[in-house]
Amino acid sequence: MKVSTFITGALLGLATQFGTVHADLSPITIKGYKMFDAKTGQYFMVKGVDYYPRPNAGELDVNNYDFFSDDHEDIWSQDLPYFKQLGANAVRLYAVNPTISHDKFMCALRAQGMYALIDMGASCEGCYISTDTAPKCYSGSMKTRGEMIIGAFAKYDNVLAFSAGNEINNDHNIENFENAPCQKRFIRDLRKYINQCGLRHIPVGVVMSDRNRMENAQYYNCRTDPKDEFENVEWYGINVYLYCDATQTTIGGGFQKLLNDFQSINPAAPVLVTEYGCLNEGFPKVGKYEAQRTWTQTGWLYSQQFRDVFNGGFVFEYSTERANSKSKSDYPFTSFGEQNYGLGYYSPATCDHSKTKCTYNKMPNFDNLADKYNHTNASDETTMTKFEPASNRTQPTTCPAQIKALSKFDWGNTTNTKSLACPTKTDQFVCPGQSSSGKWTTSTKGSSPGSDAGTGSKTTGSKTSGSGVRGANATTPTPTPTSTPKSTATLATLSWTLTMVVLTAAAHSLL
Q1: pTM score, whole prediction
Q2: How many CB atoms lie within 10 A of CB 416?
Q3: SS3 content of the chain, % helix, strand, coil (to 5)
Q4: What is the pLDDT of residues 388-411, one digit of tens each?
Q5: 3-state class of 310 per DSSP?
Q6: Which stretch of DSSP H or E encloses residue 428?
Q7: Which in 15, 229, 315, 459 has the greatest CB count within 10 A?
Q8: CB–CB of 466/143 below 8 Å?
Q9: Which parts of this chain are annotated as the region Disordered (predicted)?
Q10: Rg of the Cα atoms in the chain
Q11: Distances in whole angstroms, Cα of residue 74 to Cα of each of 121, 223, 251, 358, 366
């Protein structure tokens, strides 16, 4: 049997295994600060969950591992029915390996009408925007990594968006936005690569922790060079842990301030709450499980007044990570713990996704969220053709004065790093048993973007370490994944630096 025949059969099986096939699923597009179905024009409200199915023990009990490949179908396939029960339409993936196939996972999501938000950072060397001062915080290997990820995932029409970084502002050593220009430059380079390659317009954004809220939101939504159309994000994400008072029944002060702050900034791009779900001992005990979140704030987030600013969000997280939770709330996670964030957990205590299978168990707060998601209705939202952004939300924000313009830095290490050849088959992938949503590429593909000094850029070097995701057309080992935001463990893996040398050389030989 040919390998291609086997894979096609396997994917076809997946398309029918996980419920109704959404043959009409289309890419999500952005108009102004709202998201819409690119084909039907209907408003799209993100009802997401942060997904990192970490086992309780074993070799895969690590941060930033790619659980979403074809090889791990036995891991993620059991969770898909729970996504459907939850009423979720998107998952956020903290770590992917672009050198291996994700066809089965992405097709299985698509069959359920679901999308994926793909993070790009990882904890391996050269895989993240570091805490160094700009421009050292952005390396040529990070640029190449980002292009690889784009190449690997651009073929899937259910990629919701790319995240160029996760909480690079959350290190105690970062006090004055020292590495923010590196993050912004990376966003710019990714956007330009997608544009020059004529790929489907998958929006590039960034996720920040809730620190220096106003300054970060303004900075990533602005252009330090008004003529550079790629500098600003196409969507903006913020991780917020508000609504910790379980007795609050009306919109809490923290959530109201969040709304007020973003209303005052008037971003021209969609805003997503990319992590939320505060833990507090005051939440009710349900059965044997203490402090079960009620998800009252979910109702607020999807109310009309919040929808005018926010386009939905992702709850943190699908399953409790024992490595993070065990010091205060160990298996079976019935007691309150500061890291017991799961909507459920895996059993038994020794499960490792290998010798001992992990079985998912819902906690009561799973059903609380499912009730919110399954009763959320945005049918009163206008369609894309009729939607007109408010006049005060059509332009990039004003840049904070304390952060230097990108043109003030010497980006030589990245401008001297030649871009990878453009992907050539990004509009040809159709999930077996599902209908194509159409052709979404924008121009000629298969060439390579020219070198780019960037507006006002000079030429020197830079260095990086890692936070991330993985990209496309390569044959390397999986780089170390970066942890989900509340994780603390580290993963010892093969060197990403050596990988990048091989990949870059191979890519350049094609140019």
Answers
A1: 0.85
A2: 14
A3: 25, 15, 60
A4: 999 999 999 999 999 999 999 999
A5: strand
A6: none
A7: 315
A8: no
A9: 431-487
A10: 22
A11: 25, 45, 41, 10, 22
